[in-house]
Amino acid sequence: MKTIAFIGLGKIGQTITYASLIDGIFDQAILYDIIPELPEKFEHELRHAFATKGVNTDLISSNRLDDVTGADIVVITAGKPRKAGMSRRDLFADNAKIMYDLAKKLPPKNPGAIYLMVTNPVDMMASIFSKFSKEYVISAGDQVETMRMRSYLAKKYKIPVTEVNGFVGGEHGEDAVVLWSTVSIKGNPVEESVHQEVENYVKQIPGEIIRVMGGTTWGPGTIIADIVRSIALNENRVMSIAIPREFEGEVIHVSIPVVVGRTIGPSIEQLLDEKDRWYLMAAMKDFHSTYRELIKTSMIDQLS
Amino acid sequence: MKTIAFIGLGKIGQTITYASLIDGIFDQAILYDIIPELPEKFEHELRHAFATKGVNTDLISSNRLDDVTGADIVVITAGKPRKAGMSRRDLFADNAKIMYDLAKKLPPKNPGAIYLMVTNPVDMMASIFSKFSKEYVISAGDQVETMRMRSYLAKKYKIPVTEVNGFVGGEHGEDAVVLWSTVSIKGNPVEESVHQEVENYVKQIPGEIIRVMGGTTWGPGTIIADIVRSIALNENRVMSIAIPREFEGEVIHVSIPVVVGRTIGPSIEQLLDEKDRWYLMAAMKDFHSTYRELIKTSMIDQLS
Amino acid sequence: MKTIAFIGLGKIGQTITYASLIDGIFDQAILYDIIPELPEKFEHELRHAFATKGVNTDLISSNRLDDVTGADIVVITAGKPRKAGMSRRDLFADNAKIMYDLAKKLPPKNPGAIYLMVTNPVDMMASIFSKFSKEYVISAGDQVETMRMRSYLAKKYKIPVTEVNGFVGGEHGEDAVVLWSTVSIKGNPVEESVHQEVENYVKQIPGEIIRVMGGTTWGPGTIIADIVRSIALNENRVMSIAIPREFEGEVIHVSIPVVVGRTIGPSIEQLLDEKDRWYLMAAMKDFHSTYRELIKTSMIDQLS
Amino acid sequence: MKTIAFIGLGKIGQTITYASLIDGIFDQAILYDIIPELPEKFEHELRHAFATKGVNTDLISSNRLDDVTGADIVVITAGKPRKAGMSRRDLFADNAKIMYDLAKKLPPKNPGAIYLMVTNPVDMMASIFSKFSKEYVISAGDQVETMRMRSYLAKKYKIPVTEVNGFVGGEHGEDAVVLWSTVSIKGNPVEESVHQEVENYVKQIPGEIIRVMGGTTWGPGTIIADIVRSIALNENRVMSIAIPREFEGEVIHVSIPVVVGRTIGPSIEQLLDEKDRWYLMAAMKDFHSTYRELIKTSMIDQLS
């Protein structure tokens, strides 16, 4: 993995870019945004940061999608951001059109690339991009929720976060489910009486952060950059992201713990307990029906 | 160095905090800002980031300055930010009052701490804080300009930035001077015909970035976090920061390449050529007279 | 994970210790070896290295096993080393007695520790230690072979090693099998005509290195330190190590790709293709019968 | 800095190589030793280590000095090692001949390279290499002693080593002097009553380690790799190494704290106190007279 492209350089896009590049693991990075001068000025900022860190990654910045060529990984954050009070699904229609456009333009110049979707609603945008591009697309999915869950338990029990393991899966956002069969503290399961507050935290904390800070950046930015890193360095970390899967003839994206390296998969869904698998299946059905409906009502189908 | 405190959690404060903490080199960090809920919500963001990185640094967040205790390093970004078109000196009066307040409240609870000033006008705020606290204060000074200078030369000559060495000194901002006797590309001096455009870049690029992006964050944030790192890990890197020095009976801050480790200094001013030393002396005189005047006109003297 | 202990400070033990500690991820490390003065002198060497790196991990060195207390992870390399021409199994009898001793003495003072076995024959020593201690023991297993396999393919095809994925499993050493259903180059399977030479390399390269260099250290040391890191930082990397499993009433150790974090497992055996699973089953049977026989002939059974 | 060459792959050479390369900061590394198969087998070991770390540095190994081409930095450890009881100067004659040979063969194929001497007696070998090659040569000098001094004080006072600053200078080995005017603990000077035991430690610990472990590797290997890193990443750390200086018409090497980046220097000798400067001057005189004498008695002069 030598070249990475970032499509979208808003707050979250900038944070992912920074966190992905600052350790110098790529030979080249391409910075794209539609806003005039933004990629170029952001390039300057990164160059200044690289100077103190001794990072020699080549940087290319552009407002032209045509300049995004030869990427091994493409990280997509382009689209409207989720604002306070807005549901992730509200964004569907507008951002789906942007994905359609990207799905047509990016693949011809970036053969063999892995696409990492971050634009919300993230799983559906991954499916939409997949639908129109036929490329391999993953969604950042619930890896952010996964880390929020671990972080909450660590703080609650005043232990290092490295003592907490486990995953959140299903849909990203309000319908994410903690996969309790995977969760442990110092190797022991978490008592059921605590489940509800953990689930509440995972659902409510992004809204809380957005209300005060205007958006979530440092958490998701770092976590998603670690997905990038695990692919680029072939670390094979297990992360709760959404990989493409067939469901009633449609490619859909629902988060499941999955091995993330130069190749992505297998998922370890089969190794979860029955209850957690049931939740994942329910999430898939729910995703699928909502997805079908949203495609219809927003007339995205007619784009192709 | 075990505990670090961050006073001010605006854009630049957040970026410095993130870049200082993400490698897990501190045992504890204290996050302070005057804005309600901001420290606490930023703490959540950092915890999420720490979860993926396996960082176990303890975090404390507060709106009360009283909770800032036992810090070994205190990074100050609190104050009004520099807006597009505004001179760094325009900020003097307002931010000096904030420094007066911090200088009275922080030292009693943080004995032996090193203070790193980032609030603009950065050198003067360092001097003001020093004046009222009698503590050891350094200013981030021209280390940011230093990296911008190297970055420009690297891009111009299409070489890795690690091939460019040298420093910018004097006052931070519009009056910073490239210390040409220290500058080299692959070990060779830079031809004089290029000097002007380099100096222009260093002066103009922050304004350009602010115009498009609303502020400079990634560059300064990373560079200033490397000052923190060099102190905390005792790396003894030579950096162009401003350390306190007596000048006509007053402690003032002007940037000079200086050894930055657990102890700070000596500066290598004596080892510069005559021309560069002349510029630094001129910068000190200029700083001193402006500083005296600003103190008078803003009636800061009457605070003590 | 705050404290790590290293039992055995020979060449490989030193290399694992160094590579595990040099990034400063532990609070404390305990260095044990039976050779007088060796732990203490090695401690000095590490302290000198820590000084330049800014690492503040506490070090304790001792010739007394009693001083090994409170460890979260215990890495065991103690025992006779494998010499040129010697089979790993030749070592069984002598090293099993050492394991019996350690299994009796270490657990009482290190409650809840994870034991990582490196002493050869590594899988059998893990089983022996497990048998006598009833503690949770993993064997470094085939993670070293896994990296050798990837490294060979990368060199052969002149591509970055990060482009090669896949695992070696089964028994450590001569009987290790490449799990071809997991192996890929830039995402594509490896043609069968190449399989034999890869398998030969994995089997023969350690002997080649030992013949010229006297032992293998840098490869295994770094790879095993990454197992330690994945546990300590809860990275959840998938690695081919041997975790305890019941087989005909006996706990045995055979390498399978498994998730390695603060909790270890699940293995992804069920997700392999039929052929690879058949090989793993055969390895287990083979391991079991050899193990039973060696225990009998070396009269290890009579120790308990 | 893209390519590094290692001349000599004994114990210390291997450790420096490993520690210099494992973070992936070079594009290419050339491994040379005179022992048949050693470079090639060591290359395999490094490749296995790189696989787990995701390092993609190109490796070239050879027994032919002719294959060492295009290096930006050349690290020389070739020569006879210092054995227990042997003075560093005993090695002079034999290793000087090796340096003569390298000085004739390496420069033509490695234009512009910086040579970092590690072979003992290290300062004299640097001067010899400089004499015959006219290239820019630095000696690892007293940076190892510097770290040993800091490490001793940290252990004695039970404080983190990052709280201790200061340097050892002069000749490498028995005649090294602690530059007390630079030494501090938490920013305060060290009481004189402690000086003697610190000096004793610095002088005696390498012999102690060699007696028990057969050689010093982890300490010097890591410390010297950090010299390499500071050059390659242009970190500008101040380190106590020996840079070439004219003394009575001869280029000699005596350790002084010096800025180590893409350019090396200035030294901060002028900033030391009078006592420390006197010691350094004495060391230079001593070095010079011994050096002249050794050159004569070993008839090295007649080589050119």
Automatic annotation (TrEMBL), chains A, B, C, D:
Residues 146-263 form the Lactate/malate dehydrogenase C-terminal domain. It holds the Pfam family Ldh_1_C. Gene3D superfamilies: Lactate dehydrogenase/glycoside hydrolase, family 4, C-terminal, NAD(P)-binding Rossmann-like Domain. The lineage of its organism: Archaea, Thermoproteota, Thermoprotei, Sulfolobales, Sulfolobaceae. It comes from the Archaea. Keywords: NAD, Oxidoreductase, Tricarboxylic acid cycle. This is Malate dehydrogenase. Belongs to the LDH/MDH superfamily. The keyword Nucleotide-binding does not apply. NAD(+) binds at residues 8-13, 33, 95, 118-120. Substrate binds at residues 82, 88, 120, 148. PANTHER family: L-2-HYDROXYCARBOXYLATE DEHYDROGENASE (NAD(P)(+)) (PTHR43128), L-LACTATE DEHYDROGENASE (PTHR43128:SF16). One of its GO terms (biological process) is tricarboxylic acid cycle. It comes from Candidatus Acidianus copahuensis.
